[in-house]
Amino acid sequence: MSETRKDTLTIFMYPWFAMGHFIPYLLTANKFAERGHKTFLIVPPNTQPKLSPLSLYPDHIKFIPISIPAVDGLPAHVETTNDTTIQDQDLLRHALDLTQPVIESLLCDLKPDFIFSDLKHWVPGLARRLQIKSVYYSVASPATMGFLFTEGMLTEDIINGPPGYPPSIKLHKHMARVFVWFQTAKERGSGITLQKRFLTAICESDAVGFKTCKEIEGEYCEFLENMLKKPILFAGPMVPKPEANLTLDQKWAEWLDKFKPRTVIFCAFGTEVVLKKDRLEELLLGFELTGLPFLIALRPPLGVDSIEEDLPHGFKERTKERGIVYGGWVPQQLILKLSSVGCFVTHCGYGSTWEGLMSECQLVVLPHAFDHCIQARLLSGVLKVGLEVEIGDEDGLFTKEGVHGAIMAAMADGSEAGKEVRRNHDKYREFLMREGLEDSYFDNFVTKLRTLLE
Asked: What InterPro entries would the database entry show (predicted)?
């Protein structure tokens, strides 16, 4: 493809500074680059080395590192959400708001066709002033975005979502109370609520994009199309291809290979979920109750240097022949492909949701944040491809018995619930793995983007 303005699109990407946002944006940049388009991706300096191996087309994808402006109360080392607590993330959002002059200068120099962004309520206005099309590119599901438009402060007003929202997903009462905070708590620095930040960024953009397909989330896509009255673009399902040189630690691979096919439970909650000590204990004891082999990869609880320090009394000795608990990152996709792994216990981050759907493992969902809860309900209640760990409606707490029960319902021979989710999972996985699906969706995505420039 010739490098002309007519044929080649230039996309400027400024995601929220979290790994769960960088990676989907970079996967999308790879798709653009595969078709000859050029992408500039804004990143913090220390994060670029972690992302560079995932860039498959370095001639077409350029990282632009920017420093985080100093903000009172935000430690100087903070670059991403992984460096701070959820309570202080409003300060990181404020710091990124202060990058607006830098971003404007870059946009004036680069003159892109589009800016893809999320969470930055000022981006659409800036793009409009510079005559650049803005796309709110979401790393969460259409079902999650639809719920953001909920109004009212009463639990009864919130649990069912906004008027016209498909009735198949409802919030627990404890999460409805969290949503009230989302609606009312004003951020330090910006002085606006998180809901206002989201809705302004979404509603003032020229289009909204998702890395999904309508066959999976159709009714929620239609809800947004009817509500927003603007183009809703679907880039299709995207799961990164495992790097050729990426291998599982040899001792783990050998250890996992000793178990029978589809008997190992794998549990991972992404790079940001941090369980409290009592929740970690309930989770681990639930795994112990199953009597099955397991690999658990989680961040240590706050205030603990390593997860191994915080295991329940006697747990390591009792499970040493069949269990590993690790406090660092593991190559999730490689583990899900192992023949011995038969169950994936996930927090339902959107990336993990798609990796789970495309795996052959039984899915057990245990969400922790608002978007995780919506996506968990999508898997367990709408698509019926996984089983959800029972949690308290009022307090959101789970028990070891609940963890054990969900896993065994998914794994046990003769479990009718397990058979149903496996049938449904097999059906959707077969569709998602269909040859040409990803390319067809992304080609259409690019075509729809071009129409915005006409």
From this structure: UDP-glycosyltransf_plant, UDP_glucos_trans, UDP_glycos_trans_CS
Question: Which one-letter amino acid corresponds to residue 10?
Answer: T
Q: Where are the domains of the chain?
A: 10-240+435-453, 250-432
Per-residue pLDDT of the chain (454 residues; tens, 9 = 90+): 333 445 899 999 999 999 989 999 999 999 999 999 999 999 999 999 989 988 999 999 999 999 999 999 999 999 999 898 888 999 999 999 999 999 999 999 999 999 999 999 999 999 999 999 999 999 999 999 999 999 887 778 899 999 999 988 999 999 999 899 999 999 999 999 999 999 999 999 999 999 999 999 999 999 999 999 999 999 998 876 655 456 777 877 888 999 999 999 999 998 888 899 999 999 999 999 999 999 999 988 877 888 888 899 999 999 999 999 998 888 888 899 999 999 999 999 999 999 999 999 999 999 998 899 999 999 999 999 999 999 999 999 999 999 999 999 999 988 999 999 999 999 999 999 999 999 999 999 999 999 999 8
Find the helix or strand (DSSP H, E) in which 28 lies.
helix 19-34
Residue 206 known to be catalytic: no
CA atoms within 13 A on the CB side of 202: 25
From the list 90, 113, 118, 371, the catalytic residue is 118
Examine the residue annotation and report whether 21 is marked as an active-site residue of this protein: yes
Top CATH class, 250-432: alpha beta
pTM of the model: 0.93
Q: Which tokens sit at 165?
A: 């929202």
CA dihedral defined by 329, 333, 339, 341, rounded to 10 degrees? 50
Overall fold of domain 10-240+435-453: Rossmann fold (3.40.50)
Which residues, in sequence order, are CB contacts of 426 under 8 Å at separation 6+?
A: none
Residue 311: strand, helix, or coil: coil
Tell me which of 21, 368, 404, 425 is the catalytic residue. Answer: 21
Q: Which residues of 184-206 are buried (b: 16+ CB within 10 A; e: fewer)?
A: eeebebbeebbbbbbebbbbbbb
